[in-house]
Amino acid sequence: MRQQLFFSPTMREVPQGADIPSHQLMLRAGLIRQTASGIYSYLPLGRKVLRKVEQIIREEMDAAGGQELLMPAIQPAELWEESGRLDDYGPELMRLKDRHERDFVLGATHEEVITSLVRDEVNSYKKLPMNLYQIQTKYRDERRPRFGVLRSREFIMKDAYSFDTNKEDLDKNYRAMYEAYTNIFKRCGLDFRAVKADAGAIGGKGGTHEFMVLSDVGEDTIAYSNSSEYAANIEIAELPDMYEKADSPSESLKELYTPGMRTIEDLTNGLEIENSSLLKSVLFLIDDKPVLIVCRGDHEINEIKVQNAFDAENVMLAETEDIKHIMGTEAGFIGPVNAPEEVTIVCDFAVKAVSSGICGANLVDKHYQNVHPDRDFKVEKYGDFRLVQEGDPSPDGKGTIQFAKGIEVGHVFKLGTKYSEALGAQYLDENGRAQPIIMGCYGIGVSRTIAAIVEQHHDDNGLMWPKAVSPYDLHLLVLNPKQEEQNQLGETLYETLKRAGYDVLYDDRKERAGVKFKDSDLFGLPIRIACGKKAAEGIVEVKIRRDGKMEEVHINDLPSYLASIEKELF
Fold it and tell me: Would you tell me how many other CB atoms lie within 10 Å of the CB of residue 396?
């Protein structure tokens, strides 16, 4: 492509409102332009990268047995009513009416459409298993779009859905997708982790993993072992029962006057004690029943673990009025000792090891000291109810937990029969009996993947594309267009390199050499070839973008030289 004709508007300054490197560089290098808040146009350079990533995805999905189709972006609202998600999905779901006042939604996800499609076309076990996928635009009305295409209202996604007759085949499909995703993100040049995760709004009770690209700008925190492959989203990272039950203290329960000491910080400062000796009590309404969760003062209760432990539909933190009504006191002074009979008390594993703890007395400005679980209050059960912390032992018994920030680029779910039962997607088994189809769901944020690549592959001067996703193979520059030797050599090399199979961006603009060098670094193509002062001698300067290595090479040696350095690229 001749750059003189190429639609590639660049920016010298960091655009206002672009807070992270990927957003800044994708704007500055002319990959994207904002059309509205959270809505972007992909310019030719950005579109080429999209196509490279999409091609990698297609190759790995096809190799794993997937079949590509394309579903509509506009979906009938009644399908979402059938699944029960029309009201549950929330304000992120974009809704509209046609001229006949019929209700539609813009596809935020396609579980309903694909399930209805398979329901109407597949009726026998002989047609299963099956894996269908698409690459398509999705829409979610983000409350606060930010970080460019990392959190936008319109984005490109690959979503796949597997359909099986039994859990064993679902496991095979899940493993095939897990391995395909691993291959995809490796080929994209990403440093990532596959982490155990929560299913969230998609649903499903089976396994689920997120594929997280390690990055300081990530909005999720990964808990991983420093000595094994264990990794999980911090929200669900499990903790083993590693605590021995403490002996009863010699001193009996005693009431403390603690005026205005409502928080853990108030108590540690006011009583001059360690927060690990405190018992933190939090009241939840779990499917409308009051449950008091108790953990150590230096730990934080994890609501997702609470919900999963109780297999609950609704888990809510009790409001101030709920606390007064149920516990008979104010927030900040509640505790398990002498709690009302209707309140179920459960404790995190670590509470077992507390011998002489301090907890709320269910009286304003009062706490108890010398508290011992089981002696002073009845514990319904112990369990893993807290957020993991750095330094905790890894649940696989290998090493300790460390934290890292991550960008979610992929997610795989075992949906089970959640959607097939709701929408009546059944097959006839060998005995002619109707059975619900067992489903899996597998998504990749294509546009997010590009932003994640940029986050991991850039420097102060611009982008540094991995070879597999680079929009062009190399950048050919004529440094002084007024010099006929340079122009002739540039034209000759342009045609020669294209015939050799290279995708070339040819900077034939009538610009200064400094401008061309800056744009070349900004675009970040893996190899730069510059026709300069030694053009008359047939010598060009070749630079590898990633490490800055430069060599003068005669054009007769250029094919072999390019072949040799390509092995160093990834």
Answer: 13
